[in-house]
Specification:
CATH class of the largest domain: Alpha Beta
Distance between the termini: 113 Å
Strand content: 25-35%
Radius of gyration: 34 Å
Shape: elongated
Number of strands: 28
Number of domains: 4
Bound molecules: zinc ion
Largest sheet: 7 strands, mixed
């Protein structure tokens, strides 16, 4: 085939293609013209198709960012690296019977730089998105790398402008969020072997972790370092409140020796409630006990209920008092909501469940179902921010740790242990109690602060004194010690060497 012939064929083919295109295009125009009642409309392929009919308006009214609990102003502090659910509230205003289906796009920026974008599945836009209906909002689990520092989010409905609206200028909303770094929680679970003196049964410790998942969801923390401790045996009758006190004091002695008093590291004693024969011992009453403001607590392993029981006691360890529902003693007078409500909406992001303030109670109350109020959440956050990193020593060298079980102002037992442990801030006076080191001929060798620990649950009030005595002189020159209350001895001189129970 010659060159001329090839060019001729190419020309003919090109002409046919153009002719075909013109015919098809004119037919499409004719169809479009017919639909628009004779008005000629040429649709270009890349121009968005927007119906002439404008029905109503899609408006983004609000973005709410939930980690455990959130109010309508997004005032609740956000915790870095903790899973977060973004709820975008979009209303379809004056839809005139038309249901608009659309999707929401969220773009993230940090320091003016584009970080990423996420888009929802399309779904019908409600006439009114409300906090109390999780299905009424467009919901997003934010990517991990968005959950730190400062981030600006821009949410947009109908981003491809496919829906004709009366106002196209209210389809986007910008919100800024700040995430705060909170120290990881150190949690040691101590499995208790419970020898029940009433039934004679032994309840074996399970050595598992039924609680940290719930703590991660409800507490203002993003990470928990969990350790399972060696088993500890307790023989007694935990149907009685004072026996819970004895168990808590025993566990506190272990914590003080191993970790050092005042530490931010939690020790939680888990008491089993079932044995292989199907027996259980718990029938009601005290189910746990935890110091208010010191990080040791104990509670029953109820299976599913173990986590919320632990949340309550560990809440005490974080300094929280009771919320007013179920008639607990020692109610926090500043708790802001009646009936121990969580006050604002909560979300458990692990299950994407919405928790209503109408039906959900703060975990520091005695009512269920329980979750965390914004008030408790902020309190927990302050405590963890202060104490979560608190393990550093300011005293080294041998000293004497003295712990004493206090009942009705009298010491019923005490334990002395030589420790060489970090001991936080031992010089700071926090209570009216002190401990005095006595030398030969009743010479006072030194006076040191003693801390008062208190726990309060249904049927039990527990008090304990804990003190650290640095050893300023040789042991043989010391004849004893005594506890003081407001500067007055109330114990007489106690032996230093003898451990008493
Ligand atoms: Zn309590």
């Amino acid at each position: 085939m010659g060159v001329r012939t090839t060019r001729l064929i190419a020309f003919v083919v090109l002409t046919l293609v153009i002719a075909a295109f013109v015919i098809i295009f004119s037919k499409r125009s004719a169809l479009a013209a017919n639909q628009a009642d004779g008005v000629y409309v040429a649709y270009m392929p890349i121009v968005p198709v927007r119906p002439e009919q404008k029905t109503g308006d899609l408006v983004i009214t609000h973005m709410g960012l939930y980690q455990s609990v959130q109010n309508q102003y997004n005032d609740v502090t956000l915790v870095a690296r903790k899973p977060a659910l973004l709820r975008v509230f979009v209303n379809s205003v004056n839809p005139g019977g038309t249901s608009h289906t659309s999707s929401v796009t969220v773009d993230a920026y940090r320091d003016g730089q584009f970080v990423g974008s996420i888009i929802s599945e399309p779904k019908p836009v409600p006439t009114l998105a409300i906090a109390g209906d999780i299905e009424s909002t467009f919901n997003f689990n934010l990517p991990d790398d968005w959950l730190k520092g400062k981030i600006t989010l821009i949410a947009r409905i109908d981003g491809f402008d496919e829906i004709g609206e009366e106002n196209e200028n209210n389809n986007a909303l910008e919100s800024k969020f700040v995430f705060r770094d909170v120290p990881a929680l150190d949690l040691t679970i101590v499995p208790i072997i419970y020898k029940d003196t009433v039934t004679g049964l032994t309840f074996q410790a399970a050595g598992h972790d039924p609680i940290s998942q719930w703590l991660l969801s409800a507490f203002p923390i993003s990470h928990i370092n969990v350790t399972i401790h060696d088993q500890v045996t307790f023989t007694g009758d935990l149907r009685r409140g004072e026996e819970w006190e004895r168990l808590l004091v025993e566990l506190t002695n272990i914590w003080a020796r191993e970790i050092g008093p005042e530490s931010g590291h939690i020790y939680y004693g888990l008491v089993p409630n079932s044995n292989p024969n199907g027996g259980s011992w718990f029938t009601g009453g005290t189910s746990g006990l935890g110091w208010i403001g010191q990080r040791v607590s104990v509670g029953v392993d109820f299976g599913e209920g173990a986590a919320t029981a632990a949340g309550h006691e560990i809440g005490h360890n974080f300094g929280r008092r009771h919320a007013p529902c179920g008639n607990p003693a020692g109610v926090d007078p500043h708790f802001p909501y009646p009936d121990g409500s969580i006050g604002v909406y909560g979300i458990d992001t692990s299950e994407e469940t919405l928790l209503s303030p109408k039906t959900t109670h703060d975990m520091m109350s005695y009512c269920g179902p329980e979750w965390v109020s914004d008030y408790t959440y902020e309190g927990l956050l302050v405590d963890q921010s202060l104490r979560g990193k608190q393990s550093a020593a300011n005293i080294t060298g041998d000293g004497l740790l003295v712990t004493a079980d206090l009942e009705a102002g009298e010491i019923v037992s005490y334990v002395t242990t030589v420790i060489n442990q970090p001991f936080y801030d031992a010089g700071k006076k926090r209570s009216n109690f002190e401990i005095q080191l006595i030398g030969q001929n009743d010479v006072i060798l030194g006076t040191y602060p003693a801390e008062l620990y208190r726990a309060e649950e249904l049927g039990v009030v527990a008090d304990m004194l804990i003190a650290y005595i640095p050893m300023p002189v040789a042991r043989e020159k010391i004849s004893g010690m005594q506890f003081l209350n407001d500067g007055v001895s109330f114990t007489g001189i106690l032996s230093l060497d003898k451990n008493q129970d």
